[in-house]
Specification:
The chain is α+β, with helices and mostly antiparallel strands. 46% of the residues lie in helices and 21% in strands.
Length: 356
């Protein structure tokens, strides 16, 4: 039963995005789902995959995206989320979940043009990258991707974070929002405070924090509440910020010591509670590592095509996590391979029916 729902989810996702075509089109959404899933399984280009599966080409697939937009792809992702969440809601048990935000870089090897290709070079030989802001549940093994958005050069990152957060909260109750050092932004802090959300951000160390840490004893903790100023839209703003500084903390006997600086509105009794809570954020990096195993390769510089492929892989990942909650023991790679095998059989059955 769950296998049938998986195929329906993939085809419904495509139906919500693809432009309409004539009834005489040789391909339907099953063929495109087969093409995309096979490319994900083999981490291959669509052009190579189309030859292997004898299906639609990458160009044919991208032509179906002529009338789509980033908002339409985003809406299709959340439509699928509404389809799969009832299947696993009983496993949630109305719990509150920790969410983590992070940015992933997708390498680009061509000429840098436009506002979507950043100059960061994540891998050797790349000329730039596309960036995606992703939010994920990081509690235990329930690491669902709750949203992902492309980042344009100069885009308001705080606005993107709040958009993803509001969308995620339509599905789950949030306990803590966790951020890495790259999100140390006073405007973000103020926005989260106004929303009444618990947060913990790993903050950059500067002269004044280093000066305090230097005077502290090992395993000591100091809390500092300060008014901090920031500028937004040419106006100056102030926000009350609570810093938690922990010096020379070592969680286990053989682990390294580290000086931590957090900005948070959560009060915890022991040092390890701050550190352990933050380390839950590393769960989103695990999500990225797993997703890398089903990456659909492309050379296109079109941000819509790129976002479409990114979200399709996110849906495959979420379907896999849902299946695991329902008893599936396959790895993500084998899970996608099973989807491909089932879609191949389904497509072959349709072809035989047509020929008869």
């Amino acid at each position: 039963m769950f296998d049938i729902n998986i195929h329906k989810c993939l085809k419904r996702f495509l139906k919500h995005i693809f432009c309409g075509v004539g009834a005489n089109s040789p391909y339907d959404n099953s063929d495109f789902a087969h093409l995309l899933s096979d490319a994900a399984e083999h981490q291959d280009f669509l052009t190579n995959t189309s030859k292997r599966v004898d299906g639609p080409t990458g160009e044919t697939l991208f032509n179906r995206l002529d009338d789509t937009s980033l908002d339409k792809i985003k809406a299709a992702f959340y439509f699928i989320m509404t389809q799969i969440f009832p299947l696993i809601k009983r496993f949630m048990r109305n719990r509150k979940f920790a969410l983590a935000f992070d940015i992933t870089d997708q390498p680009y090897f061509g000429k840098i043009t436009g506002f979507w290709i950043h100059t960061n070079k994540p891998v050797r030989g790349s000329k730039g990258c596309f960036k995606y802001l992703t939010v994920s549940i990081v509690d235990g093994n329930e690491r669902l991707i709750m949203g992902s958005l492309p980042i344009r050069i100069g885009q308001d990152l705080v606005a993107l974070i709040l958009e993803l957060l509001q969308s995620a909260r339509k599905f789950i109750q949030t306990e803590t929002i966790l951020f890495d050092r790259g999100f140390d932004n006073y405007r973000l802090v103020e926005a989260l405070q106004k929303m009444g959300i618990q947060y913990q951000i790993l903050w950059r160390k500067d002269k004044w924090t280093n000066k305090i840490l230097k005077k502290m004893k090992r395993n000591g903790r100091k809390e500092v509440i300060a008014m901090k100023a920031y500028t937004y839209t040419k106006s100056k703003h102030k926000v009350k910020v609570r810093f938690v500084l922990i010096k020379g903390y070592k969680r286990y006997k053989n682990s390294h010591t580290y000086n931590w600086v957090f900005v948070t509105n959560i009060r915890r009794r022991w040092n390890h509670l701050y550190v352990d809570k933050y380390k839950m954020r590393w769960g989103i990096e695990t999500v990225f590592r797993v997703l890398d195993g089903i990456e659909i390769k492309t050379t296109t510089r079109n941000e819509i095509y790129r976002y479409f492929l990114n979200i399709f892989c996110c849906i495959l990942y979420n379907l896999w996590k849902c299946a695991k909650m329902l008893g599936c023991i396959l790895t993500l790679k084998n899970f996608v391979a099973k989807i491909v095998a089932d879609l191949r059989t389904n497509c072959a059955r349709i072809m035989l029916m047509d020929s008869s």
